[in-house]
């Protein structure tokens, strides 16, 4: 793709990166076949190729984004299926992230939308506030029937529909709090390693059992687990809202906390059980590449970061229970299969440890969760969830496994089949409790 940035514009490292990404695009359109919004809406501007044109024009002209541009960029899930499909290696992730930062900086949204986005950016990364919000949402659920029903996906979602979506995502009850930051879980038997486990934001409120399962499995196999004190939200939530300053500040705080812990006791890896977080942490090196003080530490942290299944795959697990008749539908989270290119490891681990694993048809398509997307774009998110649940039903599973809390909550909203984390099943297979009972 030909670009026309001025030399002055190209002096900006972000614009220079955008120029490189844009020039890699050859207009082939392969991306349209796997883009969830294009598949649903059939609008070229709701495909990666269409959005690339919009972003190119916006950045080249350096003008405030128009309402039309914002609408189509907002509809992007950042599922990154286009990057898996693209034969030219276009890094759409970094391009759309840059577009979101510009929109947040230069576009004035309606007051109600600004307020909603500000609340999400403030509450979700703070587990204490998020827990309180979930309690309030449970109390407000009876009012959901009074709010407008969802309309067609092509319409701009109203505040009422977004609030209704938030209320629908709230669980019926909240589990007790998990272990606190600063906790250390010693290895059982011969010590084989030492890792930090990301505590997460939403996950530690909605499903602390996931990290508990990871801790149980790791310590059972000789790995000491640390929940690092002063760790913050990874920054993914605010990063995808275009709040670049907040996201980078959180990244720096985490880098400092994790490397201090590594200096004290050594770390073989920083493990992540929420793949949406893992994709961003693995990108810290790029996000802070121009930061003189943090570029190298960020790259080191990105190299240490691993999805839980990447690390567990090297542990030589010892199954104690067989569940050969249990059919597991494996939902491949977008952030795992497209963002981190991890596709086979989770399924192989489940198969090797006694489960019958079945792929979900159209597994490349997003479930509609995508961070805050199911709140900000509830109509499209609901259609994607219903499509995903229908595809899952085709394999007639006893349980659904996934590696991302957002996907788990989203899918659970459309099915009665238990939705559990991959690590919970692996913990069960090696001596832990049966998941999906709470």
On the 0 to 100 scale, the average pLDDT is 91
Tally of DSSP helical segments: 24
Structural class of the secondary structure composition?
A: alpha/beta
CATH class of the largest domain: Alpha Beta
Q: What is the architecture of the largest domain at the second tier of CATH?
A: 3-Layer(aba) Sandwich
Cα-based radius of gyration, to the nearest Å: 21 Å
Q: Characterize the biggest β-sheet.
A: 5 strands, mixed
CATH topology of the largest domain: Rossmann fold
Strands ordered across the widest β-sheet: 1-3-2-4-5
What is the β-strand count?
Answer: 9
Kindly, what is the distance between the CA atoms of the first and last residues, rounded to a whole number of angstroms?
52 Å
Q: What does the overall shape look like?
A: globular
Question: Helix fraction?
Answer: 40-55%
Number of domains: 4
Portion in beta strands: 5-15%
The poorly predicted ranges are: 150-155
Task: Looking at this protein, list some descriptive labels.
single chain; 438 residues; alpha/beta; Fumarate Reductase Iron-sulfur Protein, Chain B, domain 2; Rossmann fold; five-stranded mixed beta sheet; four-stranded parallel beta sheet; 51% helix; 4 iron, 4 sulfur cluster binding; Glycolate oxidase iron-sulfur subunit; transport; electron transport
């Amino acid at each position: 793709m030909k670009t026309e940035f001025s030399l002055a514009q190209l002096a900006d490292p972000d614009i220079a990166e955008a120029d490189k990404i844009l020039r890699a695009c050859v207009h082939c359109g392969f991306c349209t076949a796997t883009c969830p919004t294009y598949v649903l809406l059939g609008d070229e501007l709701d495909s990666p190729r269409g959005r690339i044109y919009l972003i190119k024009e916006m950045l080249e002209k350096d003008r405030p984004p128009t309402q039309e541009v914002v609408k189509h960029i907002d509809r992007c899930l950042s599922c990154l299926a286009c990057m898996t499909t693209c034969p030219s290696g276009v890094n759409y992730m970094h391009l759309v992230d840059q577009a979101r930062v510009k929109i947040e900086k230069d576009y004035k949204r309606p007051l109600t939308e600004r307020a909603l986005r500000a609340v999400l950016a403030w509450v979700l990364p703070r587990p204490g506030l998020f827990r309180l919000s979930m309690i309030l949402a449970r109390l407000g659920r009876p009012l959901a029937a009074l709010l407008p029903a969802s309309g067609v996906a092509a319409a701009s979602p109203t505040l009422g529909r977004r609030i209704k979506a938030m209320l629908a995502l709230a669980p019926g009850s909240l589990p007790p709090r998990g272990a606190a930051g600063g906790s250390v879980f010693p290895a059982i038997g011969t010590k084989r390693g030492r890792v930090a486990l990301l505590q997460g934001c939403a996950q530690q409120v909605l499903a602390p059992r996931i990290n508990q399962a990871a801790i149980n499995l790791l310590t059972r196999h000789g790995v000491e687990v640390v929940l690092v004190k002063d760790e913050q939200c990874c920054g993914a939530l605010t990063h995808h809202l275009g709040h670049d300053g907040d996201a980078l500040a959180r990244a720096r705080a985490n880098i400092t906390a994790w490397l201090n812990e590594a200096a004290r006791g050594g770390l073989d890896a920083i493990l992540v059980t929420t793949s949406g977080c893992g994709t961003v942490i693995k990108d810290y090196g790029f996000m802070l590449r121009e930061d003189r003080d943090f570029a190298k530490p960020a790259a080191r942290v990105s190299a240490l970061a691993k999805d839980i299944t990447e690390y567990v795959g090297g542990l030589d697990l010892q199954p104690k229970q067989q569940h050969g008749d249990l059919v597991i539908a494996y939902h491949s989270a977008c952030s795992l299969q497209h963002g981190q290119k991890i596709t086979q490891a989770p399924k192989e681990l489940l198969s090797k440890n006694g489960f019958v694993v079945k792929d979900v048809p159209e597994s490349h398509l997003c479930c509609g969760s995508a961070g805050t997307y199911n709140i900000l774009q509830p109509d499209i998110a609901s259609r994607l969830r219903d499509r995903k649940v229908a595809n899952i039903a085709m394999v007639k599973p006893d349980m659904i496994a996934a590696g991302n809390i957002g996907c788990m909550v989203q899918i659970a909203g459309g099915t009665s089949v238990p939705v559990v984390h991959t690590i919970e099943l692996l913990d069960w297979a090696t001596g832990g409790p049966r998941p999906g009972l709470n």
